[in-house]
Amino acid sequence: MRAARRIWARAMRDKYKAKNPRSWLCRFHVQTAGCSLTAQQPEINIVRTALEALAGVLGGCQSLHTNSMDEALALPSEKAVEIALRTQQIIAFESGAANVIDPLGGSYYIEKLTDDLEAEAESYFRKIDELGGVVKAIEQGFFQREITRAAYEYQMALSRRKKFHVGVNEFANPGQKLEIPLLEIDESVERDHVALLRRTKAGRDNGAVRDSLTALKTAAASGRNLMPPLLECARRYTTLGEISDALTAVFGKYREQPFY
């Protein structure tokens, strides 16, 4: 995040010639890593989330979401959500980390890591530019291959025990039973929502809905800004599915090509 702020400010000021200094400020939201959560020994996910959330705060995030300990197993329970919220509140009100603008500023180790990450990111950007830009890189499967390679290397490191995931490939307890309650959603929730959708469709002005969808398709076909017709669709209680179908009729469906 420290590196991202530098890169953003330089790009906005020097590349895009932004005049307002406020536009040079990189504001970001942080969510803790869902991929780090484990189904095994889910209680220790609380510790993982706390460390990740603290890293986000020390990095200067403007907003923060903390994952719940049981999200590798189900949608979070009310108790798990409360613990995730309390994790943020302890960092905010007890740790003192939020009382300083840049609590890690001046640390040689952190500054060196920031310099290295910034240089590596800029090298990556140059590589993408050499491929012809982001769209061309997508068409050539560059990002897909990079994600696949990184995932494979990470999994192999776990398998070879060069990396550790506590409770999974180290300090595991295979016979341990799940000791936390999981959220169970009653089927009546689906029935109630379907009934609400039907009532909404019956009570709205369906002529106005058709007109808003027609305007959306026209804007999409002509390359105009889609936000005004999208807002009008929302005001007319057009459903997400109807909006999606209208845009699909114009643009078709994107089908990702597999690259290995």
Write the layout of secondary structure elements.
Layout: H1 2-15, E1 29-31, H2 45-58, E2 63-65, H3 78-93, H4 108-130, H5 134-139, H6 142-159, H7 188-203, H8 206-222, H9 227-235, H10 240-251
Parallel strand pairs: 1-2
Outline:
The chain has 260 residues and is mainly alpha-helical. Helix content is 56%, strand content 2%. It is globular, with a radius of gyration of 24 Å.
Q: What keywords describe this structure?
A:
260 residues, mainly alpha, TIM Barrel, two-stranded parallel ribbon, 10 helices, 2 strands, 56% helix
Structure commentary:
There is one protein chain. The chain has ten helices and two strands. It has helices at residues 2-15, 45-58, 78-93, 108-130, 134-139, 142-159, 188-203, 206-222, 227-235, 240-251, and strands spanning 29-31, 63-65. Strands 1-2 form a two-stranded parallel sheet. The longest helix is centred in the middle third of the chain and has 23 residues, at 108-130. It is globular and about 60 Å long.
